[in-house]
Amino acid sequence: MAKIVLGIGTSHTPMLNLTSQQWQHRAEVDYANLKLNLSDGRFVSYPQLLAERGPRFRDEVVLTVLEEKERACQAALDKLGDALELADPDLVIIVGDDQAELFSPDNQPAFAVFHGEEIVTYQGKYAQGAPEWMRQVGRGYLMDDVYRLPGHPKLAMQLIEGLMDQDVDVSCVASVKDPSKAGFGHAYGFIIKRLFRRSIPVVPVLLNTYFPPNVPTAARCYDVGSKMRAVVEAIPGDQRIAVIASGGLSHFVVDEAEDLKVMQALHDKDAQTLRSIPRQALKSGSSETLNWILTAGAVENLPLRFSQYQPLYRTEAGTGVGAAFCVWSD
Question: What is the tally of helices (H) and strands (E) in the chain?
């Protein structure tokens, strides 16, 4: 039977495609953002955040600190790439979220699996004419051009059918019709560009974390992950499969306490804590934690071998991303 031999979790923030000196570009976006999300469910502007929290992270945004964190993050990503290369999987399931790259309000499934031959990426805002730093981000996301990457239709269909039999309602995606208008986005391109060292077929799982009203709960995501493992292990053959969570953790306001609670729960295999994370802590970018929770369910039988957390602050009021990296393996 097929077997999940590896689990990986990684943030995919644009900061990981930029140098620490370039993180100022993301800080400028924060200053203009009127909906910075807090873990209590509130949305605030940057002036409101600064008034509430004060400049408490001023010492965290000096260049020497940022450079140290950049090096640590890139070393962690190299370690994830090493783990993927060592595991040598036959295919990879990437659990990511779509941010209006493939789907739109016209059609926003809660949970979808792509079963096409080719995964086709979308240029969007990273196309020719964008500022060079955005083009650099686009290159790291495979969104600076249209890329065509191998899918795995057979296993994807087996996964869809098995999940349906497990009472998981799955939307099916068969192709990308016009990549100038829509296609696969950063959650998938970053993983393939940064971690893959050879061509590996991919089955994309698309989880709606961002867009209410049909965002699944943390409990539902964990349970779907557990059912995914059961389905994979029932597939005939000896395929070696890796499952990778893309995104997270807290952003656009870093919440170290909430992030470290998640990291500890992953380490302890504390399914109850992961399943009980409330909706108000999973809004906007922080919602990508759901990708990790689903993956944790899928790799619940594997020990956590490596984990690292870096709070990447980019303003003195504490905006940024809680960057996390994990490896589960036999």
Answer: 10, 12
The structural domain count of the chain equals 1
Q: Tokens 């949970």 appear where?
A: 111
Return the sign of the alpha-carbon dihedral for residues 136, 141, 142, 145.
negative
User: Which structural domain, as residue segments, surrounds residue 320?
Assistant: 3-329
Q: 238 by DSSP, 3-state: which?
A: coil
**pLDDT string in tens for the chain (330-residue length):** 999 999 999 999 999 999 999 999 999 999 999 999 999 999 999 999 999 999 999 999 999 999 999 999 999 999 999 999 999 999 999 999 999 999 999 999 999 999 999 999 998 888 777 889 999 999 999 999 999 999 999 999 999 999 999 999 999 999 999 998 999 999 999 999 999 999 999 999 999 999 999 999 999 999 999 999 999 999 999 999 999 999 999 999 999 999 999 999 999 999 999 999 999 999 999 999 999 999 999 999 999 999 999 999 999 999 999 999 999 998
Side chain identity at residue 221, one-letter code: C
Q: Give this prediction's pTM.
A: 0.97
- Pairing verdict, β 111-114 and 118-120: unpaired
User: Looking at this protein, which amino acid is placed at residue 78?
Assistant: D
- The CA distance from 238 to 14, in Å, is 36
CB 159 within 8 A of CB 228: yes
Token readout for 62 is 């000096």
Give the C-alpha separation, 283 to 14, whole Å.
18
